[in-house]
Amino acid sequence: MIIIKNQTQIKGIRKSSQLAAQVLKYLATFVKPGISTQALNDIAHKYIIEHNAIPAPLNYNGFPKSICTSINNVVCHGIPSEKKILKEGDIINLDVTTILDGYYGDTSKTYPVGKISEIAKRLIAVTEKSLELSIKSLKPGKTLNECVGQVIEPLVKSENFSIVRELGGHGVGVNFHEDPFVYHFDTKKNNVDLKPGMIFTIEPMINASTDPRVTIDGQDGWTIRTFDGSLSAQFEHTILITPTGSEILTI
Ligand code: MF3
Ligand code: CO
Ligand code: CO
Fold this sequence. Notes:
Elements: H1 7-28, H2 37-50, E1 54-55, E2 68-71, E3 74-76, E4 91-100, E5 103-112, H3 118-137, H4 144-147, H5 149-158, E6 162-163, E7 169-171, E8 178-182, E9 199-202, E10 205-207, E11 214-216, E12 224-226, E13 232-234, E14 237-241, E15 246-248
Antiparallel strand pairs: 1-4, 2-4, 3-12, 4-5, 6-10, 7-8, 9-14, 10-13, 11-12, 14-15
Helix pairs in contact: 1-2, 3-5
The protein binds 2-amino-4-trifluoromethylsulfanyl-butyric acid and cobalt (II) ion (2 copies).
């Protein structure tokens, strides 16, 4: 069931989303060679708590940390660790979800660590552009598939990159993961009519090869990696459908 949010909920989700965006912006200033992903986790955790909010990932279905930190071939759900130290040339996705006054905001970006390869630069640019173009196309009266899968797929294919299929965006706000599931590739399964008051994430995960397959870590049960070891990037916003288009809440 897709929840159409009322004005009270929209205000609350907007506030939480703005905080999540602020956390991400602050956290990004610490992305440098030599810092551990545990240190990034602790900086985000402290900042979120100090702003009277809760980091949604912590203990969510047993997830052990407060943010997700996904380096290079890690697609998403990377677990912060003292042992993972950023090095020049890495790319890292930081995914922040806050709960403020009971409302959720969810956003992520992929950052370069120092100087990165040309393919890594192109991957980050294409992934961010795919999210931007998709958001610009959102409008009541259109379907989710027209605005997400049908916008993202041609762009990604033209770059000889691929779209991860097993994970997607999601309704968000009152709960962490609500209906609908948002596919980032063209599929009839995303035949959802957009209506004002819908709030969901778009969060394409793009691999820097033509192989979209992923694996899940057998040890920790969380870390998702590209099957072929290629780089993967992701950008995510929480978005409200308005009467005339959309509003990015995580800004
Ligand atoms: N923030 C992720 C998303 O965009 C979900 C992370 S779930 C966690 O949906 F448990 F790994 F934190
Ligand atoms: Co999300
Ligand atoms: Co997220």
